[in-house]
Design goal:
Strands 1-2-3-4-5 form a 5-stranded antiparallel sheet. The radius of gyration is 13 Å and the shape is globular. With 89 residues, the chain is of the alpha+beta class. A hairpin with a 5-residue loop joins strand 1 and strand 2. It is 26% helix and 38% strand. The protein has one domain. This is DUF1292 domain-containing protein.
Length: 89
């Protein structure tokens, strides 16, 4: 599997079978599992001062995205991404 790069754009399908373009805002490996933080391309390109929604997804061995399934895993990933963002500021 190729490493997912920040800035890459992907199309994902939500639970209503609606397709959305998302851009990778950050990526990290935590305890041997790859994760990405993504935002909707439409929101990112909008020049407003509103905050954008950021979603965390797990990346499997084939490069497919899946939802984070437990609150514990979500908290761990969210905190790790927060640390990365603080370091970049």
């Amino acid at each position: 599997m190729e490493k997912i790069e920040v800035g890459e754009v992907f199309t994902i399908t939500d639970e209503n079978d609606q397709e959305n373009e998302v851009e990778v805002l950050a990526a990290l490996t935590l305890e041997g599992t790859d994760y990405v933080a993504v935002g909707f391309v439409e929101d990112i390109q909008d020049d407003s001062d509103e905050d954008i929604d950021v979603f965390f997804l797990k990346v499997d061995n084939e490069g497919d995205f899946s939802a984070i399934e437990t609150d514990e895993e979500f908290e761990k990933v969210s905190n790790a991404f927060d640390e990365i963002m603080e370091e970049e500021e």
